[in-house]
Amino acid sequence: MGGSKKWTAAGAARAGREARIATAEHLDGAPIARLWQAGKLMYGYELALGQVDGHESIAQAMLLGGMALAPPYPRDWHDAAGLVLADEVEALRTAQLYVMSPQMCDVVLAAAQTLTFDDLELVDEDDLPSPTGMVVLPHPVLIETIGGNLSDERAYTWRAPSRIVRPTPRGTEDVPAVRISAYNDVNGPVQPDSFRDMAARAAAEGTPLPPLLLDAVRCQPFRFASSPDQRAAFQDYIDRAARLGEVAQEQAAAVGWDENRVVGEYSPGQVIKDVDNRFTERFLYAFWRLCEQRIAEVRDPGVNHSARVRAERAGVSPEVRVVDIRAAARPAGESPPTGRDWQHRWVVRMHKVRQWYPSEQRHRVLYRGPYVKGPADKPLLAGEVVRGLR
C-alpha cells in the first residue's frame, strides 16, 4: 500500500480490497501474528493490573472484556491471542469496506481533533454508516502515543452491536458498545527495531507481513455518561500508560533498539499527539458523523471479474465504497489558490456544534462546512493552527 503514487479511486479500491484479504489471511494462519498479539495482550495486562491492585483475574477480565470477549478466559496468553485474532478476522471478513480520498481524510483528521471526551459519550449505534465497517486511509497518519512512541495508522474496523463485558462483584455486566480496532501501515514511515525484527522473523517463517498490522482492539460504549470516579480511573490509566511507555523505551534503548525510527520524508509538524489514547475513537466518530451529514460523498467504483473472484475465494465481499468530500462543500465561486507559493493546506469554514434533538432527547455532533484549501501536495495544518475549527 505504497503512498508515493497519485491517489485514484480505482487504485485505492483495489489496494484496500487486497489489503483486507491479505491481512485476514495472515491473522488467521500465521504463527507470528498470534505471538505478536500475545505480546500486546501482556503489555495491556500490566496496565490493567496496576488499576486493580494486583488482582490478576479482574485485570484479565477488564482487558479481554474490554475487547468484547466473553468469559471464561484462557489462562495462557497465546490462547487468548488466538481468541482476539479469530474475532478480528471475523470483523475483517464481514466489514463493509470503505476507502477515503486524501481530501476527505484531511477533513476527518481536522474534525477529529475538535472532539472532546464529552463528545465521545454521544456515540450511538445509529451514528454508524454500516453495522460493520473497515476504512482504509489514503496515507499513514503519524500518531504520538501516550507512551511516547510513534505509530503510523492506516486503517480501522468497527462492528456493532457489540458489548463491553465488565467484571462485577456478582459476575459480569454487559455494556452496549461498538468494537473498534486500529491498524498500522507495514510499509509506513515508522519502523521500530522490534517491528523490523518481527517482520524478518515472519518472512523467514514463510508468512511475510501483510500491508496492515493489527495494533489495538477495544470498545466504545454507546451513550455512556461516565461518573467522576470513572473519569478519575481513566486518567489514572493514562498516567500509568505514560510511565510504562517510558520504562519500555528505556529498556529498548538499553539493548540498543531504536523504537521511534522513522524512514523517508518526515516532518515533526505532521504528528498528531494522542493525549488520552482515544484518537481512534475520535477519528471514527468524526468519519461517521461526516458521512451521516452528507458532507461526505460515498460512491461505488465498480468491481472487475478478477477482483470479484479473488474476494469470493477469500470469503469476503468484493464491494468497496469510496468516500470523498462533496464538491458542493466548496463555496460557489471559490477557486483553488493560484499565484502564491502556498506551503500548506488547511480546512476552512467548518466548526463543530452539539445540536439538541428534542424528538430523541439527546445531543448529536454536527459539523458546519467544510472544505480544504491549498495545494494537494502540501502538508495539512492541524490542531490549534486550523483557525476555522472550534
Give an account of the 3D structure:
The chain is of the alpha/beta class. The protein is 38% helix and 24% strand. The chain has ten helices and twelve strands. The chain has helices spanning 9-29, 31-51, 56-65, 77-94, 102-112, 117-120, 193-204, 228-254, 279-292, 305-314; strands at residues 96-100, 132-144, 150-168, 171-185, 212-221, 272-273, 296-299, 320-325, 346-348, 351-357, 362-368, 371-373. Strands 1, 2, 3, 4, 5, 6, 7 and 8 form an eight-stranded mixed beta sheet that branches. It has a two-stranded antiparallel ribbon with strand order 9-12. The longest helix is centred in the middle third of the chain and has 27 residues, at 228-254. It is globular and about 55 Å long.
Give the tally of structural domains.
Answer: 1
What is the radius of gyration?
A: 21 Å
Mean pLDDT: 86
What does the main sheet amount to? 8 strands, mixed
Write the H/E string, N to C: HHHHEHHEEEHEHEHEHEEEEE
Helix content: 25-40%
In DSSP terms (H or I, runs of 4 or more residues), the helix count works out at: 10
Query: Structural class given helices, strands, pairing?
Result: alpha/beta
Binned strand content = 15-25%
Tell me, briefly, the overall form.
globular
Beginning-to-end CA distance, first to last residue: 34 Å
Low-confidence stretches: 328-339, 383-390
The overall strand count is: 12
